[in-house]
UniProtKB/TrEMBL annotation:
Taxonomic path: Bacteria, Bacillati, Bacillota, Bacilli, Bacillales
Free-text function comment from the UniProt entry: Modulates transcription in response to changes in cellular NADH/NAD(+) redox state.
Gene Ontology MF terms: DNA binding; DNA-binding transcription factor activity
Protein name: Redox-sensing transcriptional repressor Rex
Localization: Cytoplasm
Gene: rex
GO cellular component, one term: cytoplasm
């Protein structure tokens, strides 16, 4: 029997569920229904049930989901029950902010090494992480068992960094540079493009303004 192919949209919703479930757990709430999840997350409850059903039967009809149990299962699905070490290249403002945020992350995905092509930054500390030269990237990836790379360099340098990540054995890349990166098969790249998000937001803001003006004339 062929395995069911899980869509990217489903996988991207799982961290949203997990984040809210963690908030419920901190508030000592033990159970939650798909209806309650849908209302809080502005999602269709049927979609939530369908998303979770891809991975198993986690709820009970008429009762809902046990919060802590569902947290454990989603963490397993997202591989957060295993340690996943991360390397970051680029110690500009964004790179430094991500390194500083690193100390607040409770999940097992942590930035453990940081690199920069600027040799004048070699040896400086960012949240207890020592900035290393790019020449040490490959050895550090192997030594620290790093599997994910983050790119926070200018667009012109991003592809070169991605190539070095791939050559070092990294198979997952989160790219903050405003450029489309190419990679060999077997390497997953996710783009966090602030510029594209802002431009698309501008479109919706125009629509919102137009809607309000139309409402006033009715």
């Amino acid at each position: 029997m062929k395995p069911i192919k899980i869509s990217e949209a489903v996988v991207r919703r799982l961290p949203i569920y997990l984040r809210f479930l963690n908030e419920l757990s901190l508030s000592n709430i033990q159970t939650v229904s798909s209806q309650e999840l849908g209302e809080k997350l502005d999602l269709n409850p049927a979609q939530i049930r369908k998303d979770l059903a891809y991975f198993g039967e986690f709820g009970r009809k008429g009762v809902g989901y046990n919060v802590d149990y569902l947290i454990e299962k989603i963490r397993q699905i997202l591989k957060l029950d295993k340690t996943m070490n991360v390397a970051l290249v680029g110690t500009g403002n964004l790179g430094r902010a991500l390194c500083n945020y690193n100390m607040y992350i409770k999940d097992n995905m942590k930035i453990v090494a940081v690199f920069d092509a600027d040799t004048s930054k070699k040896g400086t500390l960012i949240n207890r992480l020592t900035v290393q030269p790019m020449q040490e990237l490959s050895d550090s990836v192997k030594r620290l068992d790093i599997s994910v790379g983050i790119i926070t360099v200018p667009a012109a340098e991003a592809q070169n960094v991605a190539d070095q990540f791939v050559a070092a054995g990294i198979r997952g890349i989160l790219n903050f540079a405003p450029v489309v990166l190419k990679a060999t098969p077997g390497v997953r790249i996710h783009n966090a493009d602030f510029t594209a998000e802002l431009l698309s937001l501008a479109y919706y803001m125009d629509n919102i303004n137009g809607s309000k003006e139309g409402d006033e004339t009715q």
